[in-house]
Amino acid sequence: MSAARQHLRTVLLEWGLPPADAHEALLAADELVADAVLRKAGDVELTCRLDGAGERLRVEVGGPAGARPAASEPASSERLGLRLTHTLAEQWGVTYTRESTTAWFELVLPNVGRSQASSERLGGADASSGDVPEGARVLDGALVLDGVREPSPGFPPAPMPLPWPSGLSTEAMFDQVVQWTRAITQADAAYVLVGAAGEDLRVRSSTGFAQPAGSPDETDEADAWIEQAARLLAEAQDDGREPPRLPDGGCLSVISAPIRRDGERLGMVVAVAVPADRFGTLDVTRLRFAADALTPVVADERRARAHRDYRTWIGFLAEAGELLAGTLDANLVVALGAQLIVPRIGGWCAVYLDAPGESGELAHVWHADEQRIGALRAALGMADVPSGGPARRVRAWPGLDRLPVPARLSCGPEVLEVPLATRDQRVGTVLLGGPGAGGFHSDLVQLAEDLCARIAAALLTARSYTEQAAASLTLQRGLLPSRLPPIPGLDYDIVYAPAGQDAAAGGDFYDVFSAAPGRWRFTLGDVCGTGPEAATVTGLARHTLRALCREGHDPASALERLNEAMLDDGVERLLTAMHGELRPDGRGVALSVVLAGHIPPLLLRPDGAVRTVGESQILLGAMRSPGYEAETARLAPGELLLCVTDGVTERRRDGLLLDDGDGLAELLSTCTGLTARAVTRRLHTAVRQWGDGPLDDDVAIFALRAIPLADLNMDADMDADMDADMNLNTDLNTDLNMDAEKREG
User: Fold this and answer.
1) Of the candidate ranges 82-91, 231-240, 615-624, the one whose mean pLDDT is the lowest
2) Quick one: pLDDT at residue 590?
3) β-bridge mates for residue 122, sequence order
4) Helix (H, G, I), strand (E, B) or coil at 72
5) 717-745: buried (b, 16+ CB within 10 Å) or exposed (e) per residue?
6) Rounded to whole angstroms, how far apart are CA atoms 252 and 225?
7) Is the confidence at residue 12, as pLDDT, over 70?
8) Segment among 285-294, 411-420, 539-548 with least mean pLDDT
9) C or N: which end of the chain has fewer Cβ atoms within 10 Å?
10) Which residues are CB-contacts of 624 (< 8 A; sequence separation ≥ 6)?
């Protein structure tokens, strides 16, 4: 191709063609020759003819018979045709003979004097007359000065038509561009390199590569060399510097043209050749043409990729936020956050949590290779604590230089420091180890910032929940009795379970305390609602009933006074309560109870029969002077009284309540012969299993069982045996002491 171009250029200059026409003829001829070379037509013969009047130029490119030139094929997505020839030539076609196949074109030339054109000055020198400045030489119709080939004034850049059809896929477009670039510039290899925003350029398509002695033999090595060369060329172009000395890759001639859109570099087209001084300015113009043709293609691909990545990252952040929001354990939030970061954003991460008035403390370390976590944690222990600067800042990790070389290389060359912070509060810092080759680009930095903000928000929520749950638990313990007194002749047990998982204060409460010698009071209540207001009513009711009992009020009178106190204080919450008195007498337990809007208790006989005790009256806080009346009953030995709140009876499953159809009585009938503790545990398990989710209301289960006489006699015998053992031990100790005194005497 080089010989054909040199021959044609020499002929056109000798004939004195106008520069613009010679430029078009060179372009069309190059395309015909390149097509013949690509189709492996063998030896190519180039012929130029100029008619007698000098108005028509004919160029023929001949080859052996059987070759089918692209000029004979219509342009399509599969057969590209010869677009330059079709656009520039007045006539073109293919002539077939028995011996050869010749592709040709004709150009119509303006009727201008050839002598004037032949005396064109080339870079201030007359090339045809040999008038060349000192230190310069003429080569292929161009002036070579200081080793850089400059075009003659007669060869200005001209707009070029696309030599390929529209509608090609991105990869097909890249392939056509590198093939056309290599052919039109007689390069040994051509490349299209593309890089995402903030990333280094990578080879997307290539064709050909010379293999002289000492050059790389593997494609990936060749790509690595051209990528390094492209990066150096890009940096020089961006900084306005002269092209730097490129690394030795076996090629002495390299030209490049950037693919740009709105000032941003999208990629680069590169042509390389083994010999020196292979390319000229006309080749650079052609390369720029190829780069301009690829600009909309690469821009559309980047825009589509950015949109795709944006949707992917938005989905990832949404799922990450949902996962973090569903965790109320601060330690688990930190661990989940680290695993969301690695390996999507970095190769490893370390989470530092700020303490009030102190520097950050290392809370969690995670690495893509779990076997390296221990070594990484040890290295971080020797490093400085992150300073927590701006939201996005890549800094050199101070501890990196203290690591041995293998560990230093495994950690990557850079560390991204991102604060764990919301708009209003900062909770710590995340160190991100580099993701690998290419480092952190802008998209990863933005993603890291957004994800760390979500981790910080989830961490603050978990801490707030922990503090609130601890406060609620402390308050709940203050509203319930710290310990329950033993009652002779009575076996009782209470199970209390707050609704949900937050253990919010308020709701149900219970109490058992001594009222007088031989008499005990018990209370089971349920405030409408939960939270601080319900907790206020709970505290008022429990302590008021204790105080009224000490003043000698019976259960009915005590509830009357409590009702008046609630109305006087303007309490807006209603309260259901069961308040009663127990009097064990050796033959069972005498019972008097008042039900202020509460669920009537169930009495279980030893034979499994179940009945209710008492009737529910008006709720506390609903009206003045409700006129509460106590009802009496008796627990015979072996009988059990069950008291519950509505969290038990109203437990739902598939639209049904647990107590529908006397469901609670049926459950209780299966508990004959069990202790009070066994009964409460069995019923609590049944309540949990009845519903699918967590409890939606507080649950309180209070069981009282009159101890049978046999158990009482057994207990009395055990007490007598224990007293005898204690007396025996006392006598033995006395004898031993007397013996010791005698020996001392």
Assistant:
1) 231-240
2) 94
3) 125
4) helix
5) eeeeeeeeeeeeeeeeeeeeeeeeeeeee
6) 13
7) yes
8) 411-420
9) C
10) 563, 564, 567
